[in-house]
Design a protein that fits this description.
- The chain is mainly beta.
- It starts with a helix and ends with a strand.
- A 12-stranded antiparallel beta barrel has the order 10-11-12-13-14-15-16-17-18-19-20-21. Strands 1, 2, 3, 4, 5, 6, 7, 8 and 9 form a 9-stranded antiparallel beta sheet that branches.
- Helices cover 3% and strands 65% of the residues.
Length: 356
């Protein structure tokens, strides 16, 4: 595949200059002094106290790495106080970010943020995210792996799926790498596959707004598409952000290149981008997450068609770091590159996953 200099320049314009993967350096006093690490302390409302390393607060769950229990998740509503000498980014319901260590407050249901330029007590119920600003880029990574297999006896159809996701959070950026593939084999029919690899880079701006760019590569034999390369940039708004739900909307511009090699076809197109993400979380046993993402790509040049991609997943924790996932997808192209090709591909995948 060859992309013209004009297209390469357009890609560079959309993506902007590259940024270091390691993100920004932590602010002064971000980590404890070299030597023995001081453990974080989580005080629970039932009177118990747990020590370890606070990894994050997200989706209403405080993740704590301990020596004796491994990595545990605690419902934020069950936490009375948190104390840590590490520096955190703290996000509240109104979208305000604070940076500092977590000093022990004088009363329960409070979070005391102490930094070089700030010392403030926040109501715990208003805090929706805690992210440690760690010095090592590797320590800022979180991820998951899922593997699934389905066999339908009636039509002798088997399906193998694999997916991995790696997230990195820094003081200004949230980056995510997603890779997935689904291979479907049918009795007396050709084996088909779908694969997707994407990297997104989101920069939070003023409260409740963000700028996000995305690079994606896809292939779908069911739709007779060997390769689609896509680069996009957009501006977004966080419409709802609470401890048990979130909703965001973004819009932007995308440049795509499609190939159907067996047919000798290739096409470059400019598309609009409309992206909606919705999430719902249940923090008490069983822990359940529901995630929905809908992307619409109205054609700009050449005009006249549109694409849609829908991804939905429901995950339920089985034991610590192990979960069951049921996901559904639906891809639609009103004007496929190969004339007469299937316009729609959809499916349901059940898998077992591990988070790290």
């Amino acid at each position: 595949m060859t992309i013209s200099r004009l297209h390469a320049a357009a890609l560079l314009l959309i993506l902007g200059p590259p940024t270091a993967l390691s993100g920004e350096e932590p602010p002064a006093g971000a980590a404890a002094a070299a030597g023995d690490k001081i453990e974080d302390v989580v005080f629970l409302k039932n009177g118990d106290r747990v020590t370890g390393e606070v990894k994050r607060l997200e989706r209403g769950r405080l993740t704590l790495k301990t020596d004796s229990l491994g990595t545990v998740q605690i419902a934020w509503l069950d936490v009375a106080r948190v104390a840590s000498a590490e520096t955190f980014e703290i996000e509240t319901l109104d979208g305000t970010d604070y940076y500092g260590v977590l000093a022990e407050p004088e009363a329960d249901d409070r979070l005391r943020v102490s930094g070089a330029e700030i010392s403030i007590d926040l109501e715990a119920e208003t805090v929706i995210r805690l992210t440690p600003i760690e010095s090592s880029w590797l320590s800022r990574l979180d991820g998951s792996l899922t593997l699934g297999y389905t066999l339908t006896q009636a039509d002798q159809t088997s399906q193998l799926s694999f997916a991995t996701k790696i997230d990195q959070t820094t003081r200004k950026y949230r980056r995510s790498l997603d890779v997935s593939t689904i291979v479907t084999a049918r009795d007396e029919a050709e084996t088909t596959s779908y694969w997707n690899a994407s990297f997104s880079n989101r920069r939070d701006l003023k409260p409740r707004t963000f700028f996000e760019n995305l690079v994606k590569a896809q292939g779908n034999e069911e739709l007779e598409l060997d390769l689609r390369l896509l680069a996009s940039a957009g501006y977004g708004w966080t419409l709802i952000q609470k401890s048990d739900r979130s909703l965001s909307f973004s819009t932007g511009l995308a440049l795509s290149q499609e190939e159907a090699r067996e047919k000798g076809l290739s096409e470059t197109a400019w598309e609009g981008l409309i992206l909606l993400r919705a999430n719902r979380f249940w923090v008490h046993d069983p822990e359940i997450d529901l995630d929905l993402e809908l992307a619409l790509f109205p054609a700009i040049s050449p005009s006249g068609g549109f694409r849609a991609e829908l991804d939905a997943s429901l995950t339920r924790e089985l034991v610590n770091d192990l979960f069951l996932s049921i996901s559904a997808f639906d891809f639609y192209d009103s004007d496929p590159l190969t004339r007469g090709a299937t316009k729609n591909d959809y499916g349901l995948v059940t898998s077992i996953g591990w988070s790290f």
